[in-house]
Write a structure and sequence with these properties.
Elements: E1 2-11, E2 14-24, E3 29-33, H1 40-47, E4 52-60, E5 63-64, H2 70-76, E6 78-81, H3 93-100, H4 107-120, H5 122-126, H6 137-149, E7 155-159, H7 167-182, E8 186-190, H8 194-200, E9 203-208, E10 211-216, H9 224-230
Parallel strand pairs: 3-8, 3-9, 6-7, 7-8
Antiparallel strand pairs: 1-2, 1-4, 4-5, 9-10
Helix pairs in contact: 3-6
Protein backbone atom coordinates (compact mmCIF):
# COMPACT_ATOMS: atom_id res chain seq x y z
CA UNK A 1 0.00 0.00 0.00
CA UNK A 2 2.78 2.41 1.00
CA UNK A 3 6.04 1.93 -0.81
CA UNK A 4 9.34 3.68 -0.28
CA UNK A 5 11.69 3.18 -3.19
CA UNK A 6 15.44 3.87 -3.10
CA UNK A 7 15.02 6.97 -0.95
CA UNK A 8 18.08 9.16 -0.49
CA UNK A 9 17.46 12.08 1.81
CA UNK A 10 19.01 14.36 4.41
CA UNK A 11 19.50 17.95 5.50
CA UNK A 12 21.28 20.93 3.90
CA UNK A 13 22.63 18.80 1.09
CA UNK A 14 24.09 16.19 3.45
CA UNK A 15 22.82 12.71 2.64
CA UNK A 16 21.69 10.77 5.74
CA UNK A 17 19.62 7.98 4.17
CA UNK A 18 21.54 6.19 1.41
CA UNK A 19 18.84 4.38 -0.56
CA UNK A 20 16.06 2.94 1.59
CA UNK A 21 13.42 0.48 0.33
CA UNK A 22 10.44 -0.28 2.53
CA UNK A 23 6.90 -1.56 2.01
CA UNK A 24 3.82 -1.39 4.20
CA UNK A 25 0.83 -3.62 3.47
CA UNK A 26 -2.72 -2.63 4.48
CA UNK A 27 -3.21 -3.01 8.25
CA UNK A 28 0.40 -4.05 8.76
CA UNK A 29 2.60 -2.92 11.67
CA UNK A 30 6.13 -2.16 10.51
CA UNK A 31 8.75 -1.44 13.17
CA UNK A 32 11.93 0.52 12.53
CA UNK A 33 14.65 -0.01 15.08
CA UNK A 34 18.33 0.89 15.18
CA UNK A 35 20.90 2.87 17.16
CA UNK A 36 20.78 6.62 17.88
CA UNK A 37 21.48 8.68 14.82
CA UNK A 38 20.86 5.79 12.40
CA UNK A 39 18.31 7.87 10.51
CA UNK A 40 15.05 6.43 11.85
CA UNK A 41 13.36 9.80 12.36
CA UNK A 42 14.76 10.99 9.04
CA UNK A 43 13.00 8.07 7.35
CA UNK A 44 9.61 9.19 8.70
CA UNK A 45 10.45 12.80 7.84
CA UNK A 46 11.27 11.71 4.27
CA UNK A 47 7.81 10.22 3.87
CA UNK A 48 6.25 13.37 5.27
CA UNK A 49 8.41 15.87 3.36
CA UNK A 50 10.02 17.27 6.51
CA UNK A 51 13.56 16.90 5.20
CA UNK A 52 15.23 17.06 1.80
CA UNK A 53 14.52 14.10 -0.49
CA UNK A 54 17.30 13.88 -3.10
CA UNK A 55 16.13 10.86 -5.07
CA UNK A 56 13.75 7.92 -4.90
CA UNK A 57 9.99 7.72 -4.65
CA UNK A 58 7.18 7.54 -2.11
CA UNK A 59 4.19 5.67 -3.56
CA UNK A 60 0.86 5.32 -1.79
CA UNK A 61 -1.79 3.13 -3.39
CA UNK A 62 0.16 3.43 -6.65
CA UNK A 63 0.08 7.22 -6.59
CA UNK A 64 3.33 9.12 -6.27
CA UNK A 65 3.43 11.36 -3.18
CA UNK A 66 7.13 12.24 -3.08
CA UNK A 67 7.69 15.74 -1.61
CA UNK A 68 3.98 16.54 -1.18
CA UNK A 69 3.30 19.19 1.46
CA UNK A 70 2.14 17.98 4.87
CA UNK A 71 -1.56 18.84 4.55
CA UNK A 72 -1.77 16.94 1.26
CA UNK A 73 -0.18 13.85 2.80
CA UNK A 74 -2.82 13.98 5.54
CA UNK A 75 -5.61 14.29 2.96
CA UNK A 76 -4.19 11.27 1.13
CA UNK A 77 -4.52 9.22 4.33
CA UNK A 78 -1.10 9.36 5.98
CA UNK A 79 -0.72 10.88 9.46
CA UNK A 80 2.41 11.47 11.49
CA UNK A 81 3.18 11.85 15.19
CA UNK A 82 6.73 13.27 15.47
CA UNK A 83 9.20 12.40 18.23
CA UNK A 84 8.62 14.08 21.62
CA UNK A 85 4.89 14.21 22.43
CA UNK A 86 3.89 17.03 20.16
CA UNK A 87 0.82 18.53 21.78
CA UNK A 88 -0.33 22.06 22.49
CA UNK A 89 0.06 22.18 26.26
CA UNK A 90 -1.95 25.35 26.85
CA UNK A 91 -4.94 24.15 24.86
CA UNK A 92 -7.52 21.77 26.33
CA UNK A 93 -7.68 18.10 25.38
CA UNK A 94 -10.70 18.77 23.21
CA UNK A 95 -9.05 21.73 21.48
CA UNK A 96 -5.98 19.60 20.77
CA UNK A 97 -8.16 16.97 19.14
CA UNK A 98 -10.03 19.55 17.09
CA UNK A 99 -6.71 20.98 15.89
CA UNK A 100 -5.90 17.52 14.57
CA UNK A 101 -8.93 17.68 12.33
CA UNK A 102 -8.26 21.11 10.82
CA UNK A 103 -7.83 19.42 7.47
CA UNK A 104 -11.31 17.88 7.41
CA UNK A 105 -13.81 19.68 5.23
CA UNK A 106 -16.92 19.73 7.38
CA UNK A 107 -17.89 20.34 10.99
CA UNK A 108 -20.18 17.30 11.20
CA UNK A 109 -17.30 14.99 10.30
CA UNK A 110 -15.09 16.65 12.93
CA UNK A 111 -17.81 16.13 15.55
CA UNK A 112 -18.25 12.50 14.58
CA UNK A 113 -14.50 11.83 14.66
CA UNK A 114 -14.19 13.56 18.02
CA UNK A 115 -16.90 11.28 19.42
CA UNK A 116 -15.23 8.16 17.97
CA UNK A 117 -11.77 9.11 19.19
CA UNK A 118 -13.01 9.95 22.71
CA UNK A 119 -14.70 6.53 22.84
CA UNK A 120 -11.38 4.89 22.02
CA UNK A 121 -9.60 6.89 24.74
CA UNK A 122 -12.05 7.05 27.67
CA UNK A 123 -9.56 8.81 29.98
CA UNK A 124 -9.36 11.67 27.46
CA UNK A 125 -13.12 11.98 27.54
CA UNK A 126 -12.97 12.47 31.30
CA UNK A 127 -10.36 15.20 30.81
CA UNK A 128 -11.90 16.73 27.71
CA UNK A 129 -11.88 20.26 29.15
CA UNK A 130 -8.59 20.06 31.06
CA UNK A 131 -5.45 21.74 29.79
CA UNK A 132 -3.10 19.29 28.06
CA UNK A 133 -0.18 20.23 30.35
CA UNK A 134 -2.06 18.69 33.29
CA UNK A 135 -1.86 15.22 31.65
CA UNK A 136 0.86 12.71 32.54
CA UNK A 137 3.57 11.86 30.00
CA UNK A 138 1.80 8.71 28.88
CA UNK A 139 -1.49 10.53 28.58
CA UNK A 140 0.13 13.26 26.49
CA UNK A 141 1.55 10.62 24.14
CA UNK A 142 -1.92 9.06 23.84
CA UNK A 143 -3.35 12.53 23.13
CA UNK A 144 -0.82 13.04 20.32
CA UNK A 145 -1.83 9.68 18.83
CA UNK A 146 -5.54 10.43 19.30
CA UNK A 147 -5.08 13.76 17.55
CA UNK A 148 -3.56 12.03 14.52
CA UNK A 149 -6.51 9.61 14.49
CA UNK A 150 -8.84 12.60 14.11
CA UNK A 151 -7.52 12.73 10.53
CA UNK A 152 -8.89 9.26 9.61
CA UNK A 153 -5.51 7.92 8.51
CA UNK A 154 -4.98 4.66 6.63
CA UNK A 155 -1.33 4.73 7.65
CA UNK A 156 -0.05 6.21 10.89
CA UNK A 157 3.64 7.06 11.41
CA UNK A 158 4.74 7.07 15.07
CA UNK A 159 8.19 8.29 16.10
CA UNK A 160 9.28 6.86 19.49
CA UNK A 161 5.84 6.61 21.11
CA UNK A 162 7.26 5.01 24.26
CA UNK A 163 10.19 7.39 24.80
CA UNK A 164 10.62 8.41 28.43
CA UNK A 165 7.61 6.50 29.73
CA UNK A 166 7.56 4.27 32.79
CA UNK A 167 7.30 0.53 31.96
CA UNK A 168 3.62 0.21 32.86
CA UNK A 169 2.63 3.29 30.87
CA UNK A 170 4.79 2.10 27.99
CA UNK A 171 2.87 -1.18 28.02
CA UNK A 172 -0.43 0.72 27.84
CA UNK A 173 0.78 2.73 24.86
CA UNK A 174 1.84 -0.46 23.02
CA UNK A 175 -1.53 -2.06 23.79
CA UNK A 176 -3.30 0.99 22.38
CA UNK A 177 -1.21 0.80 19.21
CA UNK A 178 -2.23 -2.85 18.72
CA UNK A 179 -5.89 -1.87 19.26
CA UNK A 180 -5.61 0.87 16.65
CA UNK A 181 -4.03 -1.59 14.22
CA UNK A 182 -6.84 -4.12 14.80
CA UNK A 183 -9.23 -1.54 13.41
CA UNK A 184 -7.40 -1.79 10.11
CA UNK A 185 -4.92 1.08 10.34
CA UNK A 186 -1.39 0.35 9.12
CA UNK A 187 1.47 1.70 11.24
CA UNK A 188 5.14 2.47 10.93
CA UNK A 189 6.61 2.69 14.41
CA UNK A 190 10.10 3.94 15.14
CA UNK A 191 11.23 2.57 18.51
CA UNK A 192 14.19 2.50 20.89
CA UNK A 193 12.46 -0.29 22.73
CA UNK A 194 13.40 -2.97 20.21
CA UNK A 195 11.94 -5.97 22.02
CA UNK A 196 8.48 -4.46 22.46
CA UNK A 197 8.43 -3.10 18.94
CA UNK A 198 9.39 -6.42 17.32
CA UNK A 199 6.78 -8.17 19.46
CA UNK A 200 3.87 -6.14 18.09
CA UNK A 201 5.24 -5.70 14.54
CA UNK A 202 4.51 -7.93 11.56
CA UNK A 203 7.75 -6.81 9.92
CA UNK A 204 10.82 -5.14 11.42
CA UNK A 205 13.55 -3.19 9.67
CA UNK A 206 16.87 -2.51 11.37
CA UNK A 207 18.41 0.76 10.27
CA UNK A 208 22.13 1.43 10.64
CA UNK A 209 24.06 4.39 9.23
CA UNK A 210 21.26 5.32 6.86
CA UNK A 211 20.88 1.85 5.38
CA UNK A 212 18.64 -1.16 6.02
CA UNK A 213 20.92 -3.61 7.83
CA UNK A 214 18.31 -6.29 8.36
CA UNK A 215 14.63 -7.03 7.70
CA UNK A 216 12.47 -9.80 9.12
CA UNK A 217 9.65 -11.04 11.34
CA UNK A 218 9.63 -11.74 15.07
CA UNK A 219 12.54 -14.20 14.69
CA UNK A 220 14.76 -11.17 14.04
CA UNK A 221 15.40 -10.72 17.79
CA UNK A 222 17.48 -13.90 17.72
CA UNK A 223 19.75 -12.52 15.01
CA UNK A 224 23.36 -12.09 16.06
CA UNK A 225 23.55 -8.59 14.63
CA UNK A 226 20.54 -7.45 16.69
CA UNK A 227 22.08 -8.95 19.80
CA UNK A 228 25.25 -7.00 19.09
CA UNK A 229 23.42 -3.71 18.66
CA UNK A 230 21.03 -3.98 21.57
CA UNK A 231 22.14 -6.53 24.06
CA UNK A 232 25.92 -6.29 24.00
CA UNK A 233 26.30 -9.55 22.08
CA UNK A 234 24.55 -11.67 24.71
N1 LIG B 1 17.35 18.93 11.24
C1 LIG B 1 18.53 18.36 11.03
N2 LIG B 1 19.54 19.02 10.42
C2 LIG B 1 20.75 18.45 10.18
N3 LIG B 1 21.04 17.18 10.53
C3 LIG B 1 20.08 16.45 11.15
C4 LIG B 1 18.78 17.00 11.42
N4 LIG B 1 18.05 16.04 12.04
C5 LIG B 1 18.85 14.96 12.13
N5 LIG B 1 20.06 15.20 11.60
C6 LIG B 1 21.18 14.23 11.52
O1 LIG B 1 20.74 13.09 10.80
C7 LIG B 1 21.26 11.89 11.38
C8 LIG B 1 20.11 10.93 11.66
O2 LIG B 1 19.25 11.53 12.62
P1 LIG B 1 17.85 10.92 13.01
O3 LIG B 1 17.21 11.90 13.91
O4 LIG B 1 17.12 10.51 11.80
O5 LIG B 1 18.31 9.61 13.81
P2 LIG B 1 17.44 8.62 14.70
O6 LIG B 1 17.76 7.25 14.24
O7 LIG B 1 16.03 9.04 14.72
O8 LIG B 1 18.11 8.84 16.15
P3 LIG B 1 17.44 8.90 17.62
O9 LIG B 1 17.37 7.48 18.05
O10 LIG B 1 18.44 9.66 18.40
O11 LIG B 1 16.12 9.57 17.53
C9 LIG B 1 22.04 12.31 12.61
O12 LIG B 1 23.40 12.31 12.26
C10 LIG B 1 21.56 13.72 12.89
O13 LIG B 1 22.58 14.49 13.45
MG1 LIG C 1 14.75 9.74 16.14
Amino acid sequence: MLEIKEIKSGYNGVEILHGIDLKVKPAEIVAIIGPNGAGKSTLLKSIFSQCEVYSGKILFKDKELTRLPTHEMISEGISYVPQGRPIFSDLTVKENLEMGAFILPDKELIKRNLKDVLEKFPFLKKKENDYAFTLSGGQQQMLAIARALMQNPEVLLLDEPSLGLAPKTMQEVFEKIVEINKEGIALIIVEQNAKQAVKIAHTTYVLEDGKIALKGGKEILKDKRIKNIYFGGR
